Amino acid sequence: MNDLSSPRLQVVINGATAPARVLTVLKDATGLGFSELRALIAVGAPVLDVEMFTNDWYDSDAVRILDLLLGWDAQGVGYILCETFPEPDGGEATGDASRITVDELRNIIRSGEEERARQEELDNLKYGVPRD
Fold first, then answer.
1. Which of 48, 68, 99, 109 could be cross-linked to 11 through a Cys-Cys bond (beta carbons 3.0 to 4.6 Å apart)?
2. What percent of the chain has pLDDT over 70?
């Protein structure tokens, strides 16, 4: 078992500010049904829970989530972002979570993309792949 799991980004929505169109977008993004999403929102559970710093994160998840959150900001939808860290034994995170802002998320994404580009350039140099 890998003890070095990536942190996760969790999004909790304020049900009082979540219009029906938010549920529709979440249904498309998560594959959950409306009743499941309403139940998560009602108890203050995360409606999105995404592993960070994976290939999927860099390829599409990070930008997709950032765009979603910026749209919610424009619509006045209240949400809380948390970066959670899995337990070393692979169990559920038990409260070791940090609230972050959308600006902090944007910075995390930007610095991760820069690091990924640097690593790809080093790999290209190492393996003799020509630069563009």
1. 48
2. 86
